[in-house]
Design goal:
The chain is α+β, with helices and mostly antiparallel strands. It is built from 8 helices and 12 strands. α5 crosses α8.
């Protein structure tokens, strides 16, 4: 039998239904509670064409400590929701900062939209059809950890770059901000983002690129790949850095770690020395692009969260690679390296 002290130390269970999480002020009308602030990251994650809505909640009197512009410290009691729709609401993902750490949950909507219940910890393989013979899968909680805990902060779409008012007009799958959506300036004005470097408010973060196509390509890679492929997480030793830091930097890592860099993954049909992570002017010899186009279990990238190839992204990355071949050597890239690792 558990003692009283053991019971007190045990983590609180996850809410069993979405209505218990506090997202809605009125469940029947689905009116979102006033304290839950909408936001739209400028480089959203591709999830097989899902339409998404997002909200964040801060406990009264609490704030984000943003003195480290790329590793915000969220207060205990912070909650975030992300709703996925494929013609109807299918899933709402939920993360909450507790004193013991972050917890993750997904809620599966009934087809009539009347209920949304906690999904099993193992996930739900066939939650909704997204193509002929292809179904959207609600991730397991282990999958949530894989994606969210590859950075110092597990909150991915609510960051300095993603909320920068200097938004990329070419960003893929960009969502128009809802009325009342927050960004860096409004968060500071509300007093819920503090100690953020003043220089990054006067000159908001953005990706500095040689062309609009390159900016959109690097932004897409940041939002879809950088949570795992970065210089601060478990895969740092791979040397593939697709995360764009908000703070000062000497070069764009998405260029420096890809363009002309050899890859441990070889594009099928090519000699080992012929393929690179990104081969300027040669999309067919670029391992990064090959893996984006694959949905084979062993080769697809990202490995989780998508069953359908993002054709618009593939076209953008192809255009960027072709541009690289037409414009000559990129000042931020180097082919003189012996570092060989997977894209």
């Amino acid at each position: 039998m558990l003692t009283a002290s053991a019971l007190a130390a045990a983590p609180a269970p996850l809410p069993q239904t979405l209505r218990e999480t506090g997202l809605y002020a009125d469940w029947e009308s689905k009116r979102v509670a006033d304290g839950n602030l909408p936001y739209s990251p400028q480089y959203p994650l591709w999830t097989d064409g899902a339409a998404k809505r997002r909200w964040i909640h801060f406990p009264a009197g609490k704030f984000i400590d943003a003195r480290k512009p790329d590793a915000w410290e969220f207060p205990v009691g912070t909650k975030l929701w992300k709703e996925f729709s494929f013609g109807r609401r299918v899933e709402t993902r939920y993360i909450e900062r507790r004193a013991s750490g972050w917890v993750y949950a997904s809620y599966l909507w009934s087809e009539d939209g009347r209920e949304a219940v906690l999904a099993p910890a193992a996930g739900v393989p066939g939650a909704a059809e997204v193509g002929e013979g292809v179904a959207h899968a609600i991730p397991s909680r282990a999958d949530c950890l894989t994606c969210h805990e590859g950075r110092p902060s597990p909150v991915l779409g609510f960051s300095a770059l993603q909320l920068s008012p200097s938004r990329d007009p070419g960003a893929l799958h960009a969502e128009a901000p809802e009325p009342g959506s927050v960004d860096l300036a409004s968060l500071v004005g509300r007093g819920v983002l503090r100690r953020f470097p003043a220089a990054l408010l006067s000159e908001p973060p953005e990706i500095h690129a040689r062309s609009p196509v390159e900016r959109a390509a690097l932004g897409y890679l940041h939002g879809n790949c950088g949570m795992c492929h970065n210089a601060a997480g478990p895969l740092a030793s791979v040397g593939l850095d697709l995360w764009h830091d908000a703070g000062p930097r000497e070069s764009e890592p998405g260029v420096a770690s890809t363009v002309g860099r050899p890859s441990a993954f070889q594009v099928p049909g090519l000699r080992p020395e012929a393929s690179a992570r990104v081969q300027p002017g040669a999309p067919a010899a670029s391992a990064l692009l090959f893996r984006m186009q694959s949905r084979h279990t062993l080769t697809q990238m990202p490995p989780l969260g998508t069953r359908v190839v993002d054709r618009e992204a593939v076209q953008t990355i192809e255009r960027w690679i072709e541009e690289l071949g037409a414009t000559g050597p990129h000042p931020q890239s180097s082919t003189n390296t012996q570092h060989r690792s997977a894209p």
